[in-house]
Structures are given as structure tokens and as C-alpha cells.
Amino acid sequence: MTVYQIQATIETQLTPLFGEDEAKAMVSLLLQHHFRCSRLELSLKRKEEADPELLARLHKDTERLLQHVPIQYVTGETEFFGLHLAVSPAVLIPRPETEELVQLAVDVLKKIPHPATLLDIGTGSGCIALALKKQFPQSEVYALDVSDEALEVAKHNAGSNGLELHFLKENILFPKRKWKIPELDVIISNPPYITPAEKVQMQRNVLDYEPHRALFVPQVDPIIFYREIAIVARKKLKSGGHLLFEINEQYGKEMLDLLTEKGFRNPAVLRDFRGKERFCVAEK
Predict the structure, then answer these.
(1) Which of 172, 143, 168, 173 is nearest to 157 (CA)?
(2) How many C-beta atoms surround the C-beta of residue 3 within 10 A?
(3) Model pTM?
(4) For all residues of the chain together, what is the average pLDDT?
(5) Is the per-residue pLDDT at 177 higher than 70?
(6) In DSSP terms, which residues pair with 189 in a beta bridge?
(7) Which of 82, 115, 147, 182 is most buried, by CB atoms within 10 Å?
(8) With contact defined as beta carbons under 8 Å apart, do 60 and 69 qualify?
């Protein structure tokens, strides 16, 4: 089979489940991964024939896609803020909204007149911490997570991108009394924020395959992580330091109330590219 025939065949299989546009995008990513080429280079390979071994691997991957396994877990990779990252079911797949959170942090860090020190809480794949380290190579970046498996992915991504981070294993809900980190200019976090009641609205590829520990919070206390992070921020941020969150769009007011109660200045909720209240920022 030629590359063109393979592409058309897999698209036909996926379209009933995902729609034509998404199926085409998924197949393009799948073939780019297997041929180790760009989208443009793939289009130039349309008449090339695939060997039986490659056809077998593509068949296996297509079966996984038909089971709603996210394409990023099938290929084991994704792109984020100009970085090529490995991902696994141990970490969330980075989203476009989180790239916007990184851009907010970039705008803050540009105003700091010295190499900044920052902490990413719940680092997962390391996407936020690594993107900021790449933008500000002189900065000192700490990346924290409770999961050994997630930290292994983040460490791999740091190495593959030639970036050096300080990694910390810590449960933010039960933090140690003495963290071995200096005072911070920025704390940034995309913590779990989905409530169990929202499961009915979620797509199967997220609900069935992405790590629930990184997604869900107790229904009775949906801002639990933000409260604990705010307590840490009161202790570890420098005066004038910044706190940046990705949040559940339903709890913008609660976030403003929380940060005001904890004594932060100028708390604000900002909208993402879809118009949803997705970010919260404040100063110590």
C-alpha cells in the first residue's frame, strides 16, 4: 500500500467515530510519527510504499485509536509551546489553554529585572516548567509533582530538550514543613480542578485514559489545591511575586474570594481563547 492509500484507509475507519476533520488530523499525526517527518514531508511521500512491518504497526495503532486512546498516547509525543515532549498515561496531555497560561507567565517574567526563580506545582510532563526555562534560560526553575511516574516523564523531557530543572517529589496537600527551595518570584500551577459531577460532560478519550489523579477534585471542596498552593505562596513568594493558576471556569468568584482572603493583591480572572474564565493571577 502507498502512503496515500494507508492515509485514506485509516481516515475511513476513524471518521465515523471522530468526524472527518479530526480523523484527518489524527492520521496525519500518526503517519508523521511513524515516518519521522513533517506534515509537508509527509505530503511528498504519498506515492511511497510501506513495508509489511510498518503496516502491522499502523494497524495496531489504528485499533488503539478506535478504542478512543488519545493520539498523543498512541504516538507517545506531543508539541507544546515550541517544545517536543514525550507523554504517557502517567501525565495529562498538554492543552492549548495551558500554552496561554505559559504566555501569561512569560509576560510577567519579562518585567522582572533579574533572573527569576519559579516553581511549577503539579508539573506532570514538565510542559509549563520546561517552556518557561526555554524562554528564560537564566531562570532557576523548580518542578514539583506527587507522582514518581510523572516526574520520570518530566525528567526525560528535560533531558531531550537540553534543559535543566530542579525536580521535587511532594504532595501539595500535605507539604513538608521545610522545602529546600529559595524565595520565589513566580509560582504557577495547573492543578486538578474537575469535579466528579462534570464526568458526564467529558469525552471518553479523556475520562478513560488520562490520569484521574491529575484531573479530579472532591465535589465538596473543588478549590482544595488552590487553597493549599496559596498557603505555600504566602510563605515562599517574594513580596511582589506572582501567583498564576489555570482554573475551572465555574469557580472564578471563589478563586477571587480565596486569594483576597489570603491577602494577595490585585487578584484577577482572565478568559482563554474560547472565552471561558480559565486563569487566575495575583501578587503577594
Answers:
(1) 143
(2) 20
(3) 0.94
(4) 95
(5) no
(6) 121, 245
(7) 147
(8) no
